Amino acid sequence: MFRKIATQVGILAITLVLVSACQPKPTPTPMPAATPAAPFTFVDSAQDLGQGDGTSVVVADVDGDGDMDALISNADKNSVLLLNDGKGKFTKSAQEFKPSSSAAFGDLNSDKSQDIFITEEASNEVWLNDGNGVFSTSDQNLVSPESSSVALGDLDGDGDLDAFVTNWNGNPDQVFLNDGSGTFTDSGQTLGNWFGAAVSLGDVDKDGDLDALVANNGEKSDNAPVLWLNDGKGTFTDSTQRLGFTNAYAAVLGDLDGDGDLDAFIANSSHNGANPADKVWLNNGKGVFTDSGQNLGTLYSLTASLSDLDGDGDLDVVTGSWKTGPKIWLNDGKGKFTDSKIKLSSLNNSGVAIADMDGDSDLDMFVSTNMWLMGDGLPRLWLNQPYP
Fold it and tell me: Hey, what long-range contacts does 152-155 have (CB within 8 A, 24 or more apart)?
């Protein structure tokens, strides 16, 4: 399994209400939809984008035609590359990749095209792009004990993209260093022994290198998000900071309060009856984080993404959750979030990618969905539209 979950089996109690045959049935009163607290909403593009036990979705212009294409990672079948016609209509490419837990796009061999680093649990692969969106395997077998996610960035300061890979089930996270040609070597670092679910890279302490914030999941009491500090050469040390609850599925970095440093949004899941809220942690500019005190819902969050959805110059948040649709939180510019009240009908969103998909200059949303209880495994493209 690529995205683990403690199986929860319940018994649905169905209450049968008997109504007399002679009693006329009242006409139900429809519940009004909530009015979004935003000048926009999202509309389902209603495209057939395949089906699978989706684990993530990432977007980039892989074929050089100026629009965003998408790679959907699936746990139960081959991962799929979808090509965009520039107007937000996607077609499946002839290429397929192995089942995977996550993927990241980036120029790995310095040829100005978007390559793929893909995690496949027991190993990771690098696929190189010819510039036209045709990928060939580099034949690297980058061994991981149980890889769950990857983030790309220049970790050792040599000008190319390296890979920070999280691992599940108590296996240490890893750093793979790039030689500039797209060939990666395991740095040999063993970072922690938690249940890594996702990682975000950024310079949190303003020393000029990329640090790593890792969301940890699982059911142990010490599985809180961990901040790893970089020495500038790609060697990481534990900051000893733990950002809240012990079942985070996502931890994303961005300047949430407009003060010029990177803050953290933590998306929490739930185990053993806990109902943790998603949280905002604010940075003091030196890489020390403090809980802002906000409690943003108690959903079983699986993923999170930051973008300025309403065009007011600050970062808003979209979370994907189990058993419910995407949740959109709007930022007031100072790091305080309010519910947009936008309701979207796709459940079990395991990945969210935000970009202008249809070329109309606003931000759309591509989501992957898994096939856990209530999930249909249908990825969806949600197009940004003005609210009527």
Answer: 152/104, 152/105, 152/106, 152/108, 152/117, 152/201, 153/201, 153/210, 154/210, 155/201, 155/209, 155/210, 155/230, 155/234
**DSSP string of 228-274?**
EEE-SSS-EEEEEEE-S-S-EEEEEEE-SSSSSS-EEEEEE---TT-
> What token pair was written down for 117?
């680093």
How far is the C-alpha of 368 from the C-alpha of 202, rounded, in Å? 25
Three-class DSSP category at 326: coil
For the segment 334-372, what is each residue's pLDDT rounded down to a tens digit? Answer: 999 999 999 998 999 999 999 999 999 999 999 999 999
Which H or E run contains 42? strand 40-44
The predicted structure's pLDDT at residue 165: 98
pLDDT digits (tens, 9 = 90+) for 198-256: 999 999 999 999 999 999 998 766 789 999 999 999 999 999 999 988 889 999 999 99
Taking CA atoms, 262 is separated from 148, 181, 287, in Å, by 24, 30, 8
* Cβ-contact 280, 248 below 8 angstroms: no
pLDDT value of position 273: 67
The DSSP string of 301-322 is EEEEEEE-SSSSSS-EEEEEEE
Mean pLDDT within 68-86: 98
Q: Which two tokens stand for residue 35?
A: 């009015």
Distance between CA atoms of residues 57 and 79, nearest Å: 10
Residue range 146-173, pLDDT digits in tens: 999 999 999 999 999 999 999 999 999 9
